[in-house]
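S.,

Sequence below, as promised.
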Amino acid sequence: MTGLLAWKHGQPGQVGNEAALTVVTSAGVRLVTLFPQKSLRIKYLLRINGLRIASVSFWCVTRAISMTTENMTRRAPGVHLRTGSSVWQWKIKAPSALRSLYPSGWAHRCSLRTSDLSVANLLAAGLQADWLSRFEEQRKTLNPQRVEVVTPAMAKLLADRIRASILSTDQKLRNEPETTRLLLEATRPVGVANGLTIGPYEAPRPIADATPLDPLEGMPLALLLELADVNEAISQQAAIAMATQRVAEVLPRVKHEALAPGLTFDHKAPGGMDALRECLKAYRKAWQDVTERDAGAVIETPQAPTLVTMKQAKPTRD
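The prediction came back faster than expected:
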């Protein structure tokens, strides 16, 4: 019987009373039936198809299989079924410190769109990690640390993040003309006041064609011209702010960028005004770059400094 564990009469392999239970089937052949026991270790040399192999602890193998099966059937945190459904769901509660942001008490609830528990557990693990990271960032936002001294290094990091943010948003609009069209359609009734022209409001020219856009063709010229008008108006505002040193123009952006790593920016702190002036330069330069892109210039989008770098630039108390 090929492939079965068996001993013939008188064949070595059984040791004392530790021999496995056997069933005699045909002439001179005993089939081995192995039963795992907690204290039993099988140390025999088995002969299978004429080859000797070193056996392993059967108890260890069965125990590992049992543990694996147990883990596969255990639900990950938040995984559950709705009554009458076989599709796994996932939910996570908001921490008590963040309940003000989540009135219902639940931060997120969704369908995992699978009836396979092992797949559901993998999806839930990813969601769990993502939401725990979000909670950590939200805690920092609700409980920011005040910056006592704004160092030149921190001022430069804030300025670099502002410039990178403006150019990154502009690049996204150029790469996604459909998004640009929706944005301009939403803002067209309001218009953009540039602060330089006195007189009756003139509605911007409408986009000629509203058919679906071909990504291979890029942004239609009419859409580019309307976007360029908006960019030019904002750039002029930035130019006036730069000329008059109106640092209030960038204060909201500076506070936003400082809040990302959990810091509170105070312009009255030592170095605060210098930091605002540095950020105003970056703001003006960024919008100059945007208008140059409208004219076809190649302007690379810089990489924004990481939040870790900003934390390291924060001065520590002695």
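The beta strands are 6-8, 21-26, 29-33, 45-48, 51-54, 79-81, 88-93, 106-111, 145-146, 263-264.

Coffee later?
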